Structure of NtaA/DmoA family FMN-dependent monooxygenase:
Amino acid sequence: MTARPFHLGWFLQGSSVQAWGEPWTGNIGREWMYPSLFIDMAQALERACFDYILVEDSSYVGEAYGGSREIYLKHGLSVPRQDPAIVSTLLFAATKHIGVATTLATFTHHPYLLARMMATLDQVSGGRAAWNMVTGSSDMAARNYGLDGLPEHDLRYDMADEYMACANALWDSWEPGALVADRESGVLVDHTKVRSVDFKGQWYSSRGPLNSGPCIQGRPVIAQAGGSARGRQFAATHGETIVANPKGIEAMKAYRNDIRARAAAMGRNPDDIKVLFLVNPIIGESAQHAEERRLQRLANADAKIAQRLAHFSKVTNIDFASFDLDKPIEEGLRTNGHQQNLDTLKKMGAGGKTLRQAFTDYSGTGLSVDLCGTVETIAARMDEVMQEVGGDGFLFSMGDVSRRVVAEVADGLIPALQARGLTRTGYTHATLRENLREF
Ligand SMILES: Cc1cc2nc3c(=O)[nH]c(=O)nc-3n(C[C@H](O)[C@H](O)[C@H](O)COP(=O)(O)O)c2cc1C
């Protein structure tokens, strides 16, 4: 083995219709309503010994692009989208080892409801549940929940700190040893070990105790993706696995080092946080075949630039339909949504590049690093990248999934990584947190 092994995650672009109209998706009508594609995917990724699947979410129909829902509905862009906790339950039922990180936003669930749902997911999965902790990015989503809009970006994270404190108190409302289950004495639960929390914060309150009973893992694993300075501080405070998309090895290293330094400054062990970087490798039978597929991916991306910008509009609340694709990006663009994504796009547009060019570079062929080649050359490159960055793993973000895309990774690339001793060949532990902390 050349290096210590690294972790694997899979980014599932929402529990919704995948790649509508694309080849190899089998999407003919309503079958997206049934979970068979996701179940096949989860089983394949478990065969490949992934640590977890992250089920992304947002809970509104996009309309930031052109001020219309048309492009989102016509092309099935993050809509229809089912509830991620329900889909996560089905993934757990169909697997035994892999973790699932369910995205739930702080403004859509009261901390009590969230703590109870996550405890339930952790129980029914035997301790494999993670919560992808997000604060939301769109006023339109907030309005679906009766709010006027989302609070300002940094305030959302302040509120999320309090939210975490409330949820943690609820998970801790069952002390270790509270579950007795002693048939002889007839005691199921020791009532002295289950307490109210009487949490009263500025924004959230809850009496407790949690009626679901305790999480198997004590608390669910916390997944986070803060990108801004405030977001990174939040992620370093609470996150146990952090998913990030910095561009290039230097930026990846800087991001990870920053998270680790922030965590250490708070007295946390930085090794308890696994930073996974987004990748979307282009796998070919030969170098030439991979290059052909890369060109094809670029051509597809160019042909679908409006749809892709619509997605970008959705997470930034900026109407990219109102800009000329062939002019430089407007300077003063600001967002109350995903700030890191917009910052990266702006960097790509530096030097007066057109929006089309900047966006092509932003989302072109690679995410954190370009990976294009055969399974052997990609595995070797992933090894090099991890050694340079220092850890901790990759989050595969292959866009909308098809069984073909999943098989190329799970049954093509991962065995090549395993042969090099770079990723696990079996699950050592029963719970997600233990598997994440194994190396
Ligand atoms: C891999 C990844 C997955 C994410 N998943 C979601 C998600 O499912 N729902 C959501 O609202 N935001 C999601 N985000 C956005 C983050 O929560 C966060 O808003 C974003 O990374 C920008 O961070 P910032 O707000 O600190 O700038 C994701 C980000 C990344 C990088």
